[in-house]
From TrEMBL:
Domain Xylose isomerase-like TIM barrel: residue ranges: 21-243
InterPro entries for the chain: IolE/XylAMocC-like, Xyl_isomerase-like_sf, Xyl_isomerase-like_TIM-brl
Pfam families with a match to the protein in the record: AP_endonuc_2
Protein name as catalogued: TIM barrel protein
Length: 278
């Protein structure tokens, strides 16, 4: 079975959502993920939520290219999170066929964060979507254990865990941590490579996450073990923003990223499934 691949929006963050869909098609990706809204204009190329014309054009472009929308981002649950304002983004994602809304937890108040996450799951369920909670090395929910604790506390049926291999590595996690997670909670993952010794400061870690990742096989992460923790039908969202590709046409960037990802995945030894393995 060919591994389903998604082009993560951060891989080419300057691309307009329509350009991202076209780039995903050019790179041979099955899916892509887009931002429907963001906290600041500097982080958003186009506001999808509430733009009927753009939503219709995105739907047409997805249909024409055959690319499907895997997820929409980013629902940052900050202390004063406006859940009502996030509804339009969720509705836009649902109309475009997205399965997941990606949430993260910067809020250090776990009780408030849990309440906000539970409400987000409730709103998403009304649109037929799941919420994928991503732990982030710069946020309060920064490790796989803290994310799992929060997921268990909320207890929503449509809440899953989203693992970004960079943040897993930067918080001391590994393949053994993935192996102990209920496979139901790991419907897809964000993948990249990186140098072994990551930056120390929060500012530098944010820069690495947004601009200084590596294509698969060009870094030093134990990708064979990490990727082997996921079953062959689990989609991989390729999140590899790297400065060396910036400036190239988006379609060319996507072809480079897609081709290098498939070559690396094809080079991995075939693992024989064991009873009870995902």
């Amino acid at each position: 079975m060919t591994r389903p691949l998604s082009l993560h929006h951060l891989t080419m963050s300057a691309a307009h959502p329509l350009e991202l869909v076209d780039a995903a098609a050019a790179g041979g990706f099955d899916f892509c993920g887009i931002r429907t809204a963001a906290p600041t204009a500097a982080e958003l190329v186009a506001e999808v939520a509430g733009d009927e014309k753009l939503i219709r054009e995105l739907a047409r472009r997805l249909d024409n290219t055959g690319v499907r929308l895997l997820d929409v981002e980013t629902f940052r649950l900050v202390p004063d999170a406006d859940l009502a304002a996030m509804t339009a983004s969720l509705e836009a994602g649902a109309r475009l066929g997205a399965s997941y809304a990606v949430a993260s937890g910067p809020d250090p108040d776990r009780l408030r964060l849990g309440d906000h996450l539970a409400r987000l799951c409730e709103i998403a369920a009304g649109s037929g979507m799941s919420v994928a909670l991503e732990f982030h090395s710069c946020y309060a929910i920064d490790t796989i254990d803290r994310a799992l604790e929060l997921i268990t506390g909320v207890g929503a049926d449509n809440l899953v865990l989203l693992v970004d291999l960079l943040h897993l590595a930067r918080t001391g996690g590994g393949a053994a941590d993935l192996a102990r997670v209920d496979p139901r909670l790991l419907p897809y993952a964000q993948i990249c490579d990186a140098v072994a010794d990551g930056p120390v400061s929060v500012e530098d870690r944010r820069f690495e996450a947004r601009s200084d990742r590596r294509l698969l096989g060009e870094g030093e992460l134990p990708l064979g073990d990490l990727l082997g923790a996921f079953g062959p039908d689990v989609p991989f969202s390729v999140e590899t923003p790297t400065l060396r590709l910036r400036g190239l046409p988006f379609a060319e960037q996507a072809r480079i990223v897609g081709d290098s990802t498939r070559r690396f995945l094809d080079s991995l030894p075939v693992r024989t499934p064991t009873p009870g393995a995902r």
